[in-house]
């Protein structure tokens, strides 16, 4: 804490907390874009926060991405006195295997000694197939668990970077650009005002479901994400705890 005070991040936290309409803010020194270890510090801070809000039985719903992968790396074996099941928050969003929530929840379970479930849903299917897939008992079971999550952890990305990483088809790409999307979270692309301009259709947690979840951790850093994070803060549920870095915090305070 002493180091955090002298480096000024505590002051950044206090100022940001009073500016944003969310539950809490944690700021880590540095910039994740230029110093890769900062992402792991974000991960460690997130795991520490999760530890402090665990119930006896927990369902933790997790999104994909490299930041979530860093959170997974930060889990430690001292979670075994609580019951924890990690579940992917949503179905396929077009990510590579290493960035998929299915991969990340299995890592979290392995590191913490908890359990996990996977959610394999095809990405490009007709409405008809989609509707029958979600009636599949094994999928239904996981969907019910997701709805009962007491903790959600997610990343926030820059819209264009995310659309490209997911190899989004031209037509949708055009929609995202035309809508001036700046950020993406949970498969929702939004503009600077926080208005949703495109939504990836998949099962699992929807943005509106978040209001019922007691603990939500949004983990994202790096100045390239500042605009995205700023915009997401306009639609973030009040239960959100933002875990970010100094580079982002300074930009959010400026504008
Ligand atoms: O695709 C899953 C996801 O969580 C997105 O919702 C988010 O924008 C992105 O990953 C964040 O990825 P990264 O942490 O690699 O920037």
What does this structure look like?
The model has no long low-confidence stretch (mean pLDDT 95). The protein has helices at 2-6, 9-19, 37-52, 66-74, 101-112, 127-133, 137-147, 159-165, 170-178, 226-232, 246-254; strands at residues 24-28, 57-62, 83-88, 115-116, 151-154, 157-158, 181-185, 188-191, 196-199, 215-219, 240-245. By secondary structure, the protein is an alpha/beta fold. The chain has eleven helices and eleven strands. The chain starts with a helix and ends with a helix. Helix content is 40%, strand content 19%. Bound molecules: 6-O-phosphono-beta-D-fructofuranose. Residues 63-67, 93, 95, 154-157, 162, 184-186 line the site of 6-O-phosphono-beta-D-fructofuranose. The site of 6-O-phosphono-beta-D-fructofuranose (F6P) has 15 residues, from helix 4 and strand 7.
Unreliable runs = none
State the end-to-end distance.
27 Å
Instruction: Please count the beta strands (DSSP E, at least 2 residues each).
Output: 11
SSE series: HHEHEHEHEHHEEHHEEEEHEH
Shape estimate: globular
The average pLDDT value, as a whole number, equals: 95
Number of helices, where a helix is a run of at least 4 consecutive DSSP H or I residues: 11
Rg for CA atoms: 18 Å
Oligomer: single chain
- The fraction of residues assigned to DSSP E strands is 15-25%
As a percent range, the share of helical residues equals 40-55%
What keyword list fits this structure?
11 helices, alpha/beta, seven-stranded parallel sheet, binds 6-O-phosphono-beta-D-fructofuranose, 255 residues, 40% helix, single chain, four-stranded antiparallel sheet
